[in-house]
Amino acid sequence: MATSKKTVTVRQIRSAARLPKEQEATLRGLGLGKIRRTRTLEDTPAVRGMIRAVHHLVEVVEE
């Protein structure tokens, strides 16, 4: 029996230039770093917290 894990897709929409290093590091942790780059990640509380920390730089893509 295979369990299907929930995923969330995020896309970077703004640059991290001139922002605190913590926010830049959070983007890197999400696998982002360039505008319009998209990553599909496992939907965990940790990932949701990272998205919340940089919500002004990313968007959650609905599939």
Describe, in short, the structure shown:
By secondary structure, this protein is an alpha+beta fold.
Name the features.
63 residues, alpha+beta, Ribosomal Protein L30, Chain: A, three-stranded antiparallel beta sheet, 2 helices, 24% strand
Give the uncertain stretches in residue-range form.
none
Cα-based radius of gyration, to the nearest Å:
12 Å
CATH superfamily: Ribosomal protein L30/L7
Overall CATH architecture: 2-Layer Sandwich
Q: Outline, from the CA principal axes?
A: globular
Tell me the structural class.
alpha+beta
Percent in helix: 25-40%
Strand share of the residues? 15-25%
For the record, what CATH class applies?
Alpha Beta
- How many domains, as an integer? 1
Oligomer: single chain
Strand order of the largest sheet: 2-1-3
CATH fold title: Ribosomal Protein L30, Chain: A
